[in-house]
Amino acid sequence: ISPIEFIYERFNSRVLRLFFALMTLIPSILYVIGQFRAIGQSTEGLSSGKISGIWGAIGLGAVMLLYEVMGGMRSVAWTDVVQGFILLFAFISLLVVGDTELGGLINNTYRLALSQYIVPSFEEKLSWYSFVIVGMAFPIYPHILQRFFAVKDERRLRTSFSALFILCNFAYIPAVIIGLLGYVHHPDLKASEREKIFSIVMRDLLEIGGFPYILASILLASSVAAIMSTTDSLLMSISSIIVIDFFKPFTTLSEKTLLIIGKFTSLFVVVLGVIFGILIKIDLQNFAVLQAGFLLQLLPSYLFGSRFLDVRKNAIIVSCACGTLTMLTIFFTKRQIIGLDASIYGFFVNLVVFSITQVTLVKLHPLPQDKNPSALEFTIELLNEEEEPINKPWIFVVIFIFALVSGNFFRKSGTIDNFIIGFPVWAFTALVVCITWSFYGVLVSLFIWKDMKTNTNLLQGPQHRVYV
Fold first, then answer.
1. Other beta carbons less than 10 A from residue 438's beta carbon
2. CB under 8 Å to 257, separation ≥6 — which residues?
3. Nearest to 448 by CA among 408, 396, 370, 379
4. Nearest Cα to Cα of residue 142 among 241, 68, 283
5. How far is Cα 283 from Cα 448, in angstroms, rounded to an integer?
6. Per residue in 320-331, pLDDT tens?
């Protein structure tokens, strides 16, 4: 199934389907390029520049194509589980090694805190809020949507979300530790070399020898496997979009031919990722901003389209196009304005244009009153009656408060801060709020979000198929 099928079935529009497919393909391919760039930089960092990153990228691409041919989404899921346990062991061990071999976590934290004791500036605070808003696009990444589709039932989906809210805190800790060790032990790194900080810290561990050497080897192997898993699921998503959204609706090709097209699509994207991952000189942070920015422009369509019957497809196309053009214009000129990423400005323009266009189209062309409601109307009515988080505004009010407080908007920028257990107060506040925010997500997923009830009305009048 294609991640775009919901949009097609919801609006019954091939034009919108192709538009969304293109808007989803671009960030997906950028994501793949970023993965190959990451493995290339790791190769160069580990070898101190003696081995070109292109060889690491080529090796990854070859193994990954074999990985995709032999497995599918189930293999991705199982390897993710195994990698998770290996990484968990390795990161716990990293705490021990960091304490015994690299100066100790508390000592390194204090040394870093001495240079970060000033409350962030207004632009730095806006940059954090920018990160939070861009993060809203995460659920509509195509490989994430396909994982949602693959879940057996809604109860398991809620349980998975609950685990995700908790485990994300543990997932970020190793990255913080590695960044901390790299910052303290390599303070003179150039900006262009900071993306290689993981491989540089691993090289430090390899040079120590003994258990740190084994630990670094496990971390390196696990990180490569994690990159392969993510990239492989992205390749499957890209292939499904190309085949299901571009070829299948407009041709009479056999399933076997479509399968071959999907395989060649994967090969083409891998080659593209290797070449551009090495040649394009955009840092990984900019890659992340750009790829999430495209999907952020699609977010209102999923939200409004699944909740309101009278959403017009022309309003969606016009608003997405205006938001994307705004984002690209700012990205390739200034990238940020007053601390906010280009994608945020595009998102705001998107919402404004959508609101104006939607209201105008509804007034000019009111929705006819049908005495025989379609399955679409029954579905949206049912969704609005269900006990889902999106139907409870107070949940999002609390989330908004968490997001606002986490950015320390109430603290005066530029002032000298106090310390709490080695952290500046502003950093400690952000940490505590984010952890509390995660547990709030667990409570919502387990106790507020209820399983969907069966409604026989969905079987009546299906003028076109609708995904709930």
1. 17
2. none
3. 396
4. 241
5. 40
6. 999 999 999 988
